[in-house]
Amino acid sequence: MSDPLTEELQKTLQSSLTRYLAMEALLQRLEAALAGPEEALPPLVVELSQAQRILEREEEPVAVLLQQGVALAQHPLARQRQAAMTRVLELNRLLLPRINGMMALLSHELKELRDGRTGISGYRSTGASARRERITA
What we know:
Layout: H1 7-34, H2 41-67, H3 70-73, H4 76-136
Helix pairs in contact: 1-2, 1-4, 2-4
């Protein structure tokens, strides 16, 4: 029995599968980063956001192709893609609340640091002015 997919469709499905496997690997790195130092998380979150945008844009034509027929959806590459999508969705569902919580905490800590720096600079400028006044007086 010959493969009903054209070479172009096979390449399209293989590219889609590769994108989902890369997304899964990224989510696994994020999961590991959640157990490590906080500063490892923000770059991975940025990378995740970029990967999601690319995935949304590049997956639209694949979804249209798969809706065209049941035979296409039963192809081994399509089934592998579906399994990878399911794993990505599950990892995303598990990690998203943890990532959002960690990012909120980091944001709060950065705000406190900025507020503290502003407060310290206020003391420094007051002290410097007082010293200049004493010197000129």
